[in-house]
């Protein structure tokens, strides 16, 4: 039982020490912040104003008490005077009244001197209070101006940080996009392979063209070769009429047009290869071929990145202003009423 109590006591002591250190660090941070924005000076001026108000109140209280004492003495003198008027000079009472009158007049004179000193002290306290109030207002105005300028500087700095951050993010995205797009060195082997394919397909295209020309000549001129082929087909009981030949020729023409389109595309790729080779030799730079679809995709990506950058900048600036607008009145409410 004693061990558990010792353990709990040590734990509570350690926790209290941690809380004390945390409170000290927080108080230091708050004091630094108050000194930075000028709130400590304003608080000091307010404390001085409160002290001057208490001094003025005390001086007024002393003056009122002394004034009430003087009134009592004056009332006593009036009573003595009225009694002297009713007393004959030959009586013993008259001498006593004269002595009391002399003592009351002397006391009244002393109290009047003290009253004048208290009035002077009250006027001085009032003047000091007026000066302190004016100084407190000046300190408050200076603090408001300083807070306004620092909030403006903080807003500008936050906006610059937001723009810088969005610029860096955009640059990183563009770098990633550039890494995704193949460069001239990477596309050159593909172009070489395409050129080899073009060179290999040129022979096939020539053979197909010669075959089409031969068929056209045979169909138009009715050469002996065509007649022999017809007789041969008739001997083998194969029925091929003119419509079948027209269909065959139409299919061959379509293949010829498709092959021609492929040849044009391959020629364009050859020209592109020549441009890349010439640019590499002259400028030592890489050339990237981007098709229409890739270009449209890049433009759309650029527009999306630009819109996101604008939205992020606007959101950051609005958030910075909102944070400043919330935190500054909160700090003023928490620490300004001390």
TrEMBL record:
Transmembrane segments: 149-170, 313-335
Protein name: Uncharacterized protein
Presence of the UniProt keyword Membrane in the record: yes
InterPro entries according to UniProt: CCDC51
Coiled-coil stretches noted in the UniProt entry, renumbered to this chain: 42-83
UniProt keywords, alphabetically: Coiled coil, Membrane, Transmembrane, Transmembrane helix
The organism's place on the tree of life at top rank: Eukaryota
